[in-house]
Request: fold
Amino acid sequence: MSVFNNNFLSGKISLVTGSSRGIGREIALNLAKHGSYVFINYFKADKSAMDLKHEINQFGGNCQLLKFDVSDSNDVKASVENISKEFKKIDILVNNAGIARAALALRFKEEDFDEVMKVNVKGHFNCIKYCLPLLLRSDSPSIVNLSSVLGITGDLGNSVYSTSKSAILGLTKSIALEYASKGLRANCIAPGFIKTDMTALVSEEVSKIVLSKIPLKFQGEPIEIANCVLFLVSDAAKYITGQTISVDGGMVMK
Ligand code: NAP
Reply:
């Protein structure tokens, strides 16, 4: 049961990047369940995205698939132009699309460095830049960026991913400062160890080590993050901007 009124996002238009799977999927579902019209962005997973659309339509929710590569500025620009043909505004932008590549710095390939930065940093920036004109037409515009606990703490074997996620902290604060006078809020969520395809690749041995560093002693589900997004885009958070909330079972304190 949600603590929020079921339809409190009625009339709001949301774009959630990378919402075919994992955390993004749950965020899109939760926004739609609370009345928002949701643009489901994804890159490759057509079937998963179509399944999500079907699930949303089944409970009477409204959504549309929007396939584009967040790291390609022309693709983002054209897709946002398509939104603007149908809607005059965007109220909520959730920058969730992200990839992870792990290796010690000495062995890290340059092409992997470029790919991680392109998707995780340039991808967030592209979506903010091209959505801003539509966001500024909303009476309560809100951006939520997905960083990571590793962007705060750093991590052995994850220097590039951590770097990309640290960049999101600076990006969030800068956007929050640049557009506060227009009523736009920008915040950041730093998830810990959440059950998705991304963490399914982690070996059992490493999983045990990570779990031992979580004070609450369990792995989070995507809904933990989706509920925090709901709070951040709601009026309950109307005095919060430029902040990062760790949703990680306390992992950031260890
Ligand atoms: P995931 O299960 O691997 O899903 C990633 C999503 O991003 C998919 O929907 C994927 O779309 C999309 N995507 C990837 N590259 C894209 C691109 N170039 N353009 C558009 N969409 C793209 O990942 P997740 O675990 O849900 O993670 C979501 C976010 O949370 C990421 O930013 C991640 O860094 C962050 N995070 C996750 C955890 C965790 O424990 N899971 C912890 C900290 C932070 P396709 O399916 O179409 O490829």
